[in-house]
Specification:
276 residues; alpha/beta; TIM Barrel; 11 helices; 50% helix; globular
Length: 276
C-alpha cells in the first residue's frame, strides 16, 4: 500500500479508531473517496475497546469495503505488545523505540522484524521524538528532537524496516499555534532513504503544508485529534440542541457522519482519492 503511494507520490491516510462509529466512519470515507486506508489502534484504543473488539470491528468493516484496508498498531512500545497484536490479527505494526538510545532502538526493531516478517506483517519504526501526547506516551516539546537524516539512513540500513516515522516539527494532540515543519530536513531524509516515510502528529497541520510534505516524500499521514474534535463537537451540538435526548444512536450517528466528512477531507488533501 505504501510502496504504491511512494511510487505515485501520494500519501495513504492512517486514521486512529477508538470505537465502532469511528471504525465505520473511516471505512465509509475511504469507500466514498475510492482510497486505500489504514485503520490505526493506539495503546489507549486497545485498552479502552479491547484488542479483540478492535480486530473484529475492523475485519467486519473491511470485509464490506471495496478498497484496500490495513489494520495497524500505532506506537507499540514493547516486543510483547507487538506480538499480541500480530497474534490477534493486525496486518501492520509500529515499534516506537524513539525514547531509547539509537543502538537499543535498532536492536529491538530488528527483533520485531524477525518475528513479524515470517507472518507477512509490515513494520514501521520511529527515529527522533515527536512532541505532545499520544495516549499514554508523552514527549515534552522542549525535549522533542528532530530526526537526523544520516542517522535515519544508518537506522534503515541496519534494520531493514519497511517504513520510518520521522520528526520534522509536528506534535501529537492539539496545536497551540501554527506548526513549523522543516521541509529541507524532510527532503534530505527522503533523498537518503528508499522506503516510505511517515508523518505523525498531522492533525492541525495546514493543508498546504501536508501537501508540501507529501510532495517531498511522505507516504503515510497519521490523523487522530481532528477526528476526535469533529466527533465530540457534533455530540455536544446534538445534546445542546436536544438536551432531553437519551438515544445514543441519535447522538453518535451524527457524530459518525461528522467524522466521515473530516476523514474524506484529509484523504483528498493526501492525494489518495481514486487510488484504490
Amino acid at each position: 500500500m505504501l510502496n504504491k503511494a511512494r511510487a505515485e507520490k501520494y500519501a495513504v491516510g492512517a486514521f486512529n479508531c477508538n470505537n465502532m462509529e469511528i471504525v465505520q466512519a473511516i471505512i465509509q470515507a475511504a469507500d466514498e473517496e475510492r482510497a486505500p486506508v489504514i485503520v490505526q489502534a493506539s495503546q489507549g484504543a486497545i485498552k479502552y475497546a479491547g484488542i479483540e473488539y478492535i480486530v473484529a470491528m475492523t475485519r467486519t468493516a473491511a470485509s464490506k469495503a471495496s478498497v484496500p484496508v490495513a489494520l495497524h498498531l500505532d506506537h507499540g512500545t514493547s516486543f510483547e505488545q507487538i506480538m499480541q497484536c500480530i497474534r490477534a490479527g493486525f496486518s501492520s505494526v509500529m515499534f516506537d523505540g524513539s525514547k531509547l538510545p539509537v543502538e537499543e532502538n535498532i536492536s529491538v526493531t530488528k527483533q520485531v522484524l524477525a518475528a513479524s516478517r515470517p507472518a507477512g506483517i509490515s513494520v514501521e519504526a520511529e527515529l527522533g521524538k515527536i512532541g505532545g501526547t499520544e495516549d499514554d506516551i508523552t514527549v515534552d516539546e522542549r525535549d522533542a528532537m528532530f530526526t537526523d537524516p544520516r542517522e535515519a539512513r544508518d537506522f534503515v540500513d541496519n534494520t531493514g524496516v519497511g517504513s520510518l516515522a520521522v520528526a520534522i516539527g509536528t506534535a501529537h494532540g492539539a496545536y497551540k499555534g501554527k506548526p513549523e515543519l522543516d521541509f529541507e530536513r524532510l527532503s534530505e531524509i527522503s533523498s537518503l532513504l528508499d522506503i516510505p516515510i511517515v508523518l505523525h502528529g498531522s492533525s492541525g497541520v495546514p493543508d498546504e503544508d501536508i501537501k508540501e510534505a507529501v510532495s517531498r516524500g511522505i507516504c503515510k499521514v497519521n490523523i487522530d485529534t481532528n477526528i476526535r474534535q469533529a466527533f465530540t463537537r457534533k455530540c455536544r451540538q446534538v445534546l445542546e440542541e436536544k438536551p432531553e435526548e437519551i438515544d445514543p444512536r441519535k447522538v453518535l450517528g451524527p457524530a459518525r457522519e461528522a467524522a466521515v466528512e473530516i476523514i474524506r477531507e484529509k484523504i483528498r488533501v493526501f492525494g489518495s482519492s481514486g487510488k484504490a
